[in-house]
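This part of the workshop introduces the protein records we will be handling. A record pairs a protein's sequence with a compact description of its fold. Comparing a sequence with its tokens is the quickest way to learn the format. To make this concrete, we reproduce a full record directly below:
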Amino acid sequence: MNPLRRFGHLLGALVGSCALILGLSGAAVPASATPTATAGSGAKPTVVLVHGAFADASGFNDMITLLGAAGFPVIAPANPLRDVAGDAAYLSSVLDTITGPVILVGHSYGGVVVTNAARGHDNVKALVYLGAFAPDQGESALQLAERFPGSELGHALLTRPYPGGGIDGYITAEKFREVFAADLPAYKTRQMAATQRPGSATGLSDGSGDPAWKTIPSWYLIPRQDKVIPPAAQRFMAERAGSRVREIDSSHVVMMSHPAAATAVVLSAYAAIR
């Protein structure tokens, strides 16, 4: 698709997503969540996008385009995907370099990382979970995924050892699209499967620390067709965190298959904290 036409398509979808959010029952989203209202004067928060396992930061490309068009500074750092403490320390070091307010967004295991990294950063004003884990203290990603039925990840994993005694998990090429990204084109998921960054067994099984969502307001976008993190698990985590919730018919990679809807949730967070 021509880049200009693609941008127009994304922007139109974003407007529609904002309108849909405003029409939802339940937790109200202020009218200022529309793109027009976010284009006001003054510096906007930096949006920090954190990817999870089996993916990389390029999965946020369409969101970066939309957020940039709305005037937000954006950074999508490379998540090390080694262990919770180390990954959170790395993200915390990135946050240390950002002046002004931050909206911190996590996808999948990236939700574990933002939950831990946000602690001690008073400039982090909102947490956004996109098909993500929002663990409480002591919980691991694997425990939460297995607590509710529906995850098909365990049957799709291929493990490979790495030096030092660690084990990395990959999603097999045969199962990648079905489990991870069923609503993306097959050619795209073949590329994603070949270039995926593995999640370490340590990171996925590490217990989380004291969660930042206890003190920072949060928003949650739940993909109803998620076969990695069961939607029931996400509903449980979102309710516990007191998040403002929206659900959408999407695979696990909601930021790729529905970037406008994911961006609209970030805009809703901004409207609430500005």
User: Anything to note?
Assistant: The chain is about 40% helix and 20% strand. The chain has one domain: 3-273.
